[in-house]
Amino acid sequence: MTLLIKGGTIVTHEETFKADILCKDNKIVEIGDISMLPKDVETIDATGKLIMPGGIDPHTHMQLPFMGTVAKDDFASGTVAALAGGTTTIIDFVIPNPQQSLLDAYHKWRGWAKKAHSNYSF
Which positions fall inside the Amidohydrolase-related domain (predicted)? Predict the structure, then answer.
């Protein structure tokens, strides 16, 4: 799939500028004044809009079991909510039970994270 985001204002950590963004297979392949378009391009008009990188939440607790309770958000609902707010990556904590190895806990969290709708790390 090819996507063109046209006419937006790109905001980076260093500068702000107007440009188009061409994405192919979910990767940015070109930034600039893009007038030569490949076939089958979906175009989004971003005129008057800011285009910023997604945020990273470095401290989350998805599905965390704690003292007989479990955190309300699992990887599915928590990452959907994060995406709605512009956060595209979460970093969750793997916390083993007292008699559980860290590796066993890691595998448990990896299984839970299969439901994630965004990027994640531990």
Answer: 50-108
Domain that holds residue 36: 2-51
Q: 53: which DSSP letter?
A: P
Q: How many CB atoms lie within 10 A of CB 54?
A: 13
Distance of CA 49 to the CA centre of its chain: 19
Q: What CA–CA distance (Å, rounded) separates 113 from 74? A: 8
Residues 116 and 64 in one domain: yes
Looking at the structure, tell me whether residues 47 and 59 fall in a common domain.
no
- No. of H helices and E strands in the chain? 2, 10
pLDDT digits (tens, 9 = 90+) for 70-95: 999 999 999 999 999 999 999 999 99
Backbone torsions φ then ψ of 115, nearest 5 degrees: -85, 0
